[in-house]
Input
Amino acid sequence: MSAGGGSLGRILCIEDNPMNWRLVQRLLGQAGFDMHWAEEGMRGFEMAMDIKPDLVLLDINLPGLSGFEVATKLRQQRDLDTTLIVALTAKTMRSDRETALVTGCDGFISKPIDPFHFVEQVKGYLAGRRDRIEQGREGAALRQFTQQVVEHLEAQLKEAQESNRRLTEAQRELEARNRNLSSLFNLSQAMVGEHEPERIFERVLDQAQQELGLQRISAYRVHDSGGYMEGRAWDSEGTRVLPVLGVDHPIVGRLQSLAWDQAFGDEELNHSPLWDLGLELGWWTHRSHGLVLPLASRTGVPGLWGLLAAARDSGAFQAHERELMGLYGGILQVSASNASLISTLNQAHQALAESYERVETSLGELQKAQHAAGQRSRNVAVGDLLNALAPKMLTDLEALATGGNPEAGTRVVSLIKAVLRRGGQVGSAMPEHLDLHALLPQELEILRVLGSVPVGLEVTFNLKAASARLFGVPSDFTEVIGYLIQNAMEGMPPPRRLVIGTEGDGKHLTLTFEDDGVAITPELQAVAFEPFSGLSESAPMEGRLPAPGLAACAQLMGAYEGVMSLESMPGRTKVRLDLPLEG
Output
């Protein structure tokens, strides 16, 4: 007996029942044995080869390799010649004991084990006790073992054949699914370039019919008005338009109660009110198997987008076929929605093109008038011409704003009103409600036309404020915007990029102008907002001067309780204006 660390010996228990193992472990562990456990035969064999136990307690009824087979395999290993094997089993017949002994076991302990005598039984085998088979019984025991091995092999063969059959069926189903998914992928690719709703319905319904062997398939979707559902159907006669369904139709209410985007059919459908309603609408017949798929809206207010209803005579719909129907429904919904969106965009594009034509006409007149202005100052000429042409452009574009493209027209109207304010044709000295998010790009556009902003300057807007609405005199803020852009243009070389940004929580607004030009020295930063600070200043050896208009900006914004600040370092100069918002 090998014992280490005070142990009486090393015992490996090969037992598939954890409760039995815990009992064995408790009894023998408390007695001083070093205990190890494996819950199936092959793992037990590997552990025995690894730890070389003094004794193996071997359950006969093991999954996989039986206890008899494990005993035979252990006895073939020379490294385990001194290892004892004691069988543990609930089998109590004489033939079972003899089979255990003939396969290599040294003894036999019946289950359930007797906790009062179990430890002494184990110690007895370790002390030299051996069970012997009666003389002349070896042959019968070997024949029984051989028969058990054959039966075990036959059972494993049948199990392997059944597993192979199931694997073949799973492979066929997987191949079918792969074909279905390939067809779906090709269809989805084809639908990308399809913009006609009728053609989309025809192609999706036709392919769904072929893949699922349908006699009939119907598809409905809620009209854009939301007042009714329109649909199309496919059957042996091809595709055709279906009668409309009001949103108050009983079947629509029934569909609202189902799980959306999940197919509902066969027995569930047959025992629901939907079945009779579908019969009335001709979605299926009494002898067919039915399937219905409600589709949820994915944009706007949650609700029912549409549905698919299918019928066939060839058999009930399988789970993977319901999933496939869901995928077809998704392709139909996405393709039809995209087609509707593209149609809307095309209409908007056409209206925008017409708007551009009218604007180009007005700009042509502007260019002619500008050429006739001769040698007048560019800013004065542009101002006069814009004042002269703005009323006509305003009239045209106000009509556009009430026509095909209200949003675009409104934006241009706002721009023209800004031009008129500059020319004095619309009051700019009276306070009004202003939105700086709208005013900033308008003013930048006007300054570009006037040449105050270089063509090569990249201007980016980063408008993040929750609100930029305030009450003030428009000319005050257009003047401040002009001064801040002028400040960004100071210095050589001039900046290449200007970022105009806003931040705020709806009660306060922070407006920033950040350029990548040369830096302003700390001494000049300190006096940038003081009146007349630039009268005695000359250009510094390095850096640049703040724009003279910054002091005027500070004075103007002081009337609105605004606070201005300036920070500058190599590669970045930022002017910051903090303002309280109205209300």
Q: What stands out?
A: The first strand starts at residue 10 and ends at 14. DSSP finds 17 helices and 18 strands in the chain. Residues 138-192 form the longest helix (55 residues). The two ends are 94 Å apart (CA to CA).
